[in-house]
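Side project, low priority. Logging it here so it doesn't get lost.
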Amino acid sequence: MKHSERWKKAAALVFMACATLALAFSVSAQTTESDGAAVPVELDKVRVDSKRASEGSAAAGYRHAESNLGPLGRQSLQDTPYSINVTSGELIERRAAHTVSDALKTNPTVFTLMESAGYSSMSRVMIRGLTAADQNDQRDGLIDRSFSFVPLENVERIEVLNGLSSFLYGFASLGGALNYVSKQPTDTPLLTAAFGTYAGGLANAHVDAGGHAGEGGRIGYRVNLYREDGSTYLDGSDQRRDLVSGYFTYQLSERVALWADAWHQELDMQGLQSYINVNPSRGIHVPSADLFDARTQYGQDWTYNRANKTLLGVGLTTQLADHASMRLAYRYGDMWRDYRYVALTLSDNAGNYASKAVGTPRQTEQTHSAYALFDTDFRTGPLAHTVTAGYTTTSFSYSRGDDVSASLTTSNIAAPTVSALPTLAVAGSSTWSNSAYRNWVFGDHIAWGPQWAALLGLNRAELVQHRWGSATALSNQDFAQFKVSPSYALTYKPSSGLTAYGSYMEGLVNGGTAPSTATNANATLAPSVSQQYELGMKSVIDRVDLTAAVFWIDKINEYTDPADNVYKQEGREIHRGLELTATGRVGTQWTLVGGLTIQQAYIDRAANTPALEGKTPVNVPRQQARVYAEYEVPGVNGLSFSGAANFSGRRPVDSANLDYMAGVTTYDTGLRYASRWQGRQWSVTMNVANLFDKAYWSYYRSGDGLWLGAPRTVSLVFKTAL
């Protein structure tokens, strides 16, 4: 690596770390010292008090006071002994984000593992260097597997729980959990329309309506209608997506509230971007991203992905007594997808590559997710208890058949070859899978005095899996296992704006699935148990939330053994690191969101494969930092500018660490103007992503390959109240 490149990366990291520290010092400067005691500075009368601003709004600095903690329900972020980051829906909207990776771009603890523009249209992220798998995604606290493109037009906010979560969800991914909170009925009538474009040419229209109706406003509603259609930045790529969504509430009585939701999405993508695979063990290394053009179609324009998804849910909350309540909920999902894509593999270091067309039979999935939870609070002497106990369950049935493939003409990245669509004899489903997750949950939040509290929890988790069929697409493996998973946490609040905590949690995770390139392709490995220790601090200084967390995770190592190309479990995988985040308003004009993650992940105790000892797991960076800033122009009401810097350190692409993706820093900028015309609020928002059109590798996914980051794109949105 050139010294200049090293200095650029180091400078970017230092800049972001300094920005985070500057935020802390700048807000700390709101108080002065006098005779050793803190004396508050008189506040400017024109500043907006975030307590009066709606939670998550720009006026509140995109801050949230509460978050959903799975079966425990709504919890104070300040008092929760886990690392949780909430991305405000208003921030998502102002950044014109339509995909999960774009929406979470301001979260420094999350990085991309799968882009929705890929062949399956799935979105997936990594947290703390571990996969936050689709089976851990939730919608309003109910498991909602991200089987295909995740719509954000009906999402109010995204809550991200970092790290292990087995006490809450049983068998779950170790990286963390994402909860998409649906847009809720509004207190006052809402009707807006938005028109815009993003991703290089996707025109879209969005209508959002909310309010209350009926006698006494007992019926609440929130309806979203969305359509996008057009071409993307990739040559020969088109996309159409339609979404119809509704969320409804009914106040049956003073003690009983009902809710129901339903949404349906149809997706049709043509001309998919291709992954690019390498083979460091054979001397074929990661090429410089500068040799590629992100707008060029290296695959073929006859590739496609089609997917449909429907969700239906109902729920009830009832106050049984003054200190006891019950929550019931159920959601059903029905979805399918099919796709045809081109896989590329570099054959040398001169840019030549082999490609093959891959077709898949239609994959279907039906899901059921439910909970029945009882909440109560009581005292035992000086101890105040808040107890949650109950049952949660998720099950899904999945079917698919074998993929079929055909080799295409070899080509070179300097002049990609256009190939005709080969004959792909795709058959029907031949393998079926039923999986059920059942959890008995008990949690007790115990407080004594104004400063001390503990959270004790147990989860009796059961995983039952049955697979059958004649195909090789999924192995015929059955599991029926259960485990009791404990969790212990202690919090201490020396003041109302400062909380220190320590927590321990065990993680239960079903085994990983072997990549399609492994000898045991699509085989599922055995479930395992992991451990996590975490220490953290959460501080509120003026109008800024500051958090710091130190974590240590010990899990089983899963990898593709280069010696025999078998995906297996062997040794332990250790992740330890530091997370720093900041969210809020600084002064009267500035809003800052961002932070820094530094971690060391390595393989330990690999007795059978000692060459892996000390190696970093695939796609895990040592550093990641993000800073997003908004500036409201004084004297011009409604005008604001934004800017962002996004840094990710280098990441290995193979278990032996023979090769790496280079680290990268990209920059974004934006402009927004809001005003009123004839009594109606309207706004125009423009955002430019990857401002300097940097060529870079976004991520590497085992079994698929490298994903080329998006070029410079411009998003434009006009929104008006109707």
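Brief comment: The first strand starts at residue 31 and ends at 34.
Revisit when time allows.
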